[in-house]
């Protein structure tokens, strides 16, 4: 699903908004504009007709079709473990009252450390199952020597190991799946390799070793389960309502502000900037080269009008001719990096003040940009140059909003 909103912001700039819901059960909502995930700008540009729809769509950005925010449960559980209650509450959208989050944390700690601690009970289960594994291992080694019951002993050890691995992972043991003798022996060898310290631990050290290992695993699991259950009971209905509102907003036709300027002639867009000053673009391909695993395509780009011409090289990661916006946005960035800067300030600002090799590289880049800047000013004049840096594009480098009228 997709819906577009063609808006205008407070400075008269076009704001192209796209709202989508990805396909399939794993699709996510998205709300972006031509300056990225700038919801503040989107909502500030919204007209009364679509404000409610855009607010509904912003509320589910990167949430699945049920309204569940991406990684909300895992991230909230992490913040809860780290005593970051406000962050956990924000992820779960519980509002300003976070007493329930404190209570959730306290209940999780009680589950871990209380009188009926899951760590203590799980430690006992692991030690008991480890004895079963050791016994099965003894039978396996004996039967391997005698070549007796060759298929039974590996199977017993394999099943005992799988149960032990489930307990160590904080999971309830599940029946081991049927598998071949070869796969069983591979699993046995892998377990012995990754759990050598556990299998060789002295009896007086075993309990502490197992407890320490389980503490981390069970802490993650208990907090994750607690947050998941809380989200299911308290958050899921709210999230589902938001998803329903967003789906309703997406189902409506796309929207365009009637007074929106035509991008091709609007002087605040790159295309409009060139149209205003009679500047045309000619692009000539100069071939390609492979650097590592990637191809780079080289173009010579010439901007010209009645007053002069300006040539600049341009590189693309795809074999497609660059357009006006691609080139001018790149030039904006380059020119602003040296605008009002001397060489030493540029080297320091851009991180070229380390080794002599870095300094030489930085000096070459600074000189190249300065030559390009001077060539642009010679071709089109300083006023056009200043306009490019202050008034054109979504994020002009030296843009300052006009002072409010009194």
Radius of gyration: 32 Å
Strand order of the largest sheet: 3-2-1-4
The chain-level mean pLDDT equals: 84
What is the count of structural domains? 3
Number of strands: 7
* End-to-end CA span: 45 Å
Task: Give the amount of beta strand, in percent.
Answer: 5-15%
Number of helices: 15
Biggest beta-sheet profile: 4 strands, mixed
Helix content: 55-70%
What is the H/E order? Answer: EEEHHHHHHHHHHEHEEEHHHH
Low-confidence stretches: 401-406
Helices and strands: which structural class?
alpha+beta
Shape: elongated
Protein described:
This protein has 406 residues and is α+β, with helices and mostly antiparallel strands. It folds into three domains: 2-108 and 228-256, no CATH class; 118-214, no CATH class; 270-391, no CATH class. It has helices at 39-45, 51-59, 72-81, 85-92, 99-113, 118-146, 152-168, 181-194, 196-200, 203-250, 270-276, 324-338, 343-349, 356-380, 382-391, and strands spanning 2-8, 14-21, 29-33, 255-256, 280-291, 294-305, 308-316. The strands form two sheets. A four-stranded mixed β-sheet has the order 3-2-1-4, covered by helices on one side. A hairpin with a 2-residue loop joins strand 6 and strand 7 (308-316). Helix 6 (118-146) packs antiparallel against helix 7. The model is unreliable at 401-406 (pLDDT under 50).
């Amino acid at each position: 699903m997709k819906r577009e909103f063609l808006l205008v912001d407070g400075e008269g700039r076009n704001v192209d908004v796209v709202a989508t819901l990805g396909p399939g059960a794993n699709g996510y909502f998205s709300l972006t504009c031509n300056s990225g995930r700038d919801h503040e700008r989107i909502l500030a540009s919204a007209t009364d007709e679509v404000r409610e729809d855009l607010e509904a769509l912003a509320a589910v950005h990167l949430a699945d079709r049920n309204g569940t925010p991406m990684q909300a449960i895992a991230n909230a559980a992490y913040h809860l473990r780290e005593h970051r209650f406000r962050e956990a509450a924000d992820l779960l959208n519980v509002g300003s009252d976070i007493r329930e989050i404190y209570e959730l944390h306290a209940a999780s700690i009680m589950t871990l450390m209380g009188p009926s601690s899951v760590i203590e009970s799980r430690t006992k289960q692991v030690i008991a199952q480890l004895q079963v594994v050791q016994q099965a291992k003894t039978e396996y080694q004996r039967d391997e020597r005698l070549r007796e019951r060759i298929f039974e002993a590996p199977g017993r050890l394999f099943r005992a190991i799988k149960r032990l691995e489930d307990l160590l992972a904080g999971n309830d043991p599940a029946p081991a799946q049927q598998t071949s003798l070869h796969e069983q022996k591979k699993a046995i060898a892998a377990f012995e390799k990754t759990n050598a310290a556990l299998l060789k631990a002295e009896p007086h050290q075993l309990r502490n070793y197992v407890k320490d290992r389980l503490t981390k695993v069970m802490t993650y699991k208990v907090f994750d389960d607690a947050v998941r259950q809380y989200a299911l009971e308290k958050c899921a209905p709210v999230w589902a309502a938001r998803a329903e509102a967003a789906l309703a907003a997406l189902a409506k036709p796309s929207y365009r502000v009637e007074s929106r300027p035509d991008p091709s002639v609007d002087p605040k867009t790159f295309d409009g900037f060139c149209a205003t000053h009679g500047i045309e673009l000619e692009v000539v391909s100069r071939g390609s080269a492979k650097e590592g695993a990637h191809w780079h395509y080289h173009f010579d780009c010439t901007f010209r009008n009645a007053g002069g011409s300006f040539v600049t090289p341009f590189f693309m990661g795809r074999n497609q001719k660059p357009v006006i916006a691609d080139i001018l946005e790149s030039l904006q960035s380059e020119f602003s990096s040296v605008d009002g800067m001397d060489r030493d300030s540029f080297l320091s600002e851009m991180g070229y003040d380390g080794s002599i090799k870095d300094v030489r590289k930085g000096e070459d880049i600074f000189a190249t940009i300065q030559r390009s800047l001077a060539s642009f000013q010679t071709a089109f004049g300083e006023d056009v140059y200043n306009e490019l840096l202050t008034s054109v594009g979504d994020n002009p480098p030296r843009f300052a909003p006009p002072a409010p009228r009194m």
